[in-house]
Amino acid sequence: MQSIKSKINPNGQQFKDNHAGMMELVEKLEKHLVESRFQGKERHIERARKKGKMLARERLELVLDKDSPFLELLPLAGMEIKGSFGAGGTNVSGIGIVSGKLCMINSNVGTRKGGSVDYATTFKALRIGEITLENRLPTINLVESGGANLPDQAKIFNYGGETFRQITRRSKAGLPTISIVFGNATAGGAYVPGMSDFSIFQKQAAKVFLAGPPLVKMATNEEATDEELGGAEMHSRISGVSDYLAEDELDGIRLAREIMEIVNISKPHFIPTEPIEEPLYNAEEILGVVSPKIKQPFDARELIARVVDGSKFSEFKPEYGSTMVTGWAKIHGYKVGILANNGVIFSESANKATQFIQLSNKNNIPLIFMHNTTGYMVGKAYEEGGIIKNGAKLINAVSNSDVPHITLMIGGSYGAGNYGMNGRSYRPRFLFAYPNSKVGVMGSEQLAGVMEIIQRASAAKTGMPYDEKQGEMIRMMLINEAEKKSSAWYSTSELWDDGLLDPRETRNYLGISLAVVYNQEIKGADGFGVFRM
């Protein structure tokens, strides 16, 4: 397999301009990620410290194997949703290694709004549940939550119950959930440990009940203390809701790690054994390759060369359908097929990608889709050439492909091109995005231009003059609104991706994701839907 020979000049002005622009976006991303690590007001943290409690991220760090990686997911969920608790909500979630096994770990931020669950946290939990089941991962929950945020109850009640259903479905599939309760687990939150395969309650700290003393008093006129209703010792010795009584937080974490050692999880289907080759080019150069301005094209091969092992890429049909780059490579020793846009998708590009997806399924190779396209080509000649049926072939292949898909937004992702490249609605195992990326029906200026044409035609039909001043105001308003709602910040806030990433970390994110999908046997599709010829 040949290595890609880079044609980038790191001393060129375009490279320097790209690097400077992308660096600004990366710094903005880091600022938002720092905000997402907020664990509550100082007085709440101080109160927790006085009680001998650790913070959510400290617990998570201790449950992980020493010096092992952790892939945090959806850290900016809810960032721009009005009324939300802020970036990431009240739960830290991600994939790490515990007792040598890949696990999904969820840690409630009990010092932030009492760990109660708002709208964004609810949908973050649902997405985490999807990832956990599809990738067949065991789960560790580090529990300290006041349950549903009551002002949000109308928006989340009918969705929140799905999280409990997911726990039982995973249990049926042989994917255990271990919950350690460090504090409150109230109302619906009590079902998290209640429905787990293993529950560990911390002595004199865990409080697990469907209704606290005030509600019990109001409902039954019975008076009881927190401990009598739902204390750790009561549940460990009387009710049986708790399986283990931990002396303190460290003991609870020790028990969870011990349980993870003994649970029967299928061994990874494949772990690379050969020496891993680093790319020939420095990851720092990715910031000079990728453009912060999505209208400015760049060759996807230059990005691939800085991500794959040894920069080696076996390109498929390199002389055909040039706006779609396809080929096979390895990332951290894991074999993968890559489809990357080099602009608009023509019929030839779609047909090439369709064949490549079929071949990857025949050879049981997972796929990575790198988005940077304005969509399918339009115009009379292209309609006559069958762009619809050829675009449909690609969507058919993506929809019916059975190998795992990982999607990476590296630029624009517009119109049906988003669908053909396995966007969010096509259920990739993981979807990550660069902070320069944009997602929408079409670009903001195209959208405004189309609306202006429609408005001018409408005015002409009614015999009324077109108001140029008002038209310009409407055009600018549409551009600004479309820009905002297609931005990476808006997309990640709305949970349209599983996380924004610093482009220099691409290889590591994809490496962990591939380790997860290779955790089980990969079997490609035996057939596809009818291709319109």
How would you characterize this protein structure?
The protein is globular and about 80 Å long. The strands form 2 sheets. Strands 1, 2, 3, 4, 5, 6, 7 and 8 form an 8-stranded mixed β-sheet that branches. Strands 9, 10, 11, 12, 13, 14 and 15 form a 7-stranded mixed β-sheet that branches. The model has no long low-confidence stretch (mean pLDDT 93). The protein is built from 20 helices and 15 strands. The protein is of the alpha/beta class.
Low-confidence stretches: none
Strand content: 15-25%
Give the overall silhouette: globular
Radius of gyration from CA coordinates: 26 Å
Derived from helix and strand composition plus strand pairing, the structural class reads alpha/beta
Largest sheet: 8 strands, mixed
Overall residue-averaged pLDDT value:
93
Would you report the number of β strands?
15
Brief write-up:
This protein has 533 residues and is of the alpha/beta class. The chain contains 20 helices and 15 strands.
List keywords for this structure.
about 525 residues; alpha/beta; eight-stranded mixed sheet; seven-stranded mixed sheet; 20 helices; about 40% helix
Q: Which helices and strands, and how do they pair?
A:
Blueprint: H1 13-36, H2 42-50, H3 56-63, E1 70-72, E2 91-98, E3 101-108, H4 119-134, E4 139-145, H5 153-172, E5 177-186, H6 191-194, E6 198-202, E7 207-209, H7 213-220, H8 226-230, H9 232-239, E8 244-246, H10 249-262, H11 286-289, H12 300-304, E9 314-315, E10 324-331, E11 334-341, H13 347-362, E12 367-373, H14 380-384, H15 387-400, E13 405-414, H16 415-420, E14 430-433, E15 438-440, H17 444-462, H18 468-486, H19 488-493, H20 506-517
Parallel strand pairs: 3-4, 4-5, 5-6, 5-7, 6-8, 11-12, 12-13, 13-14, 13-15
Antiparallel strand pairs: 1-2, 2-3, 9-10, 10-11
Helix pairs in contact: 4-5, 13-15, 17-18
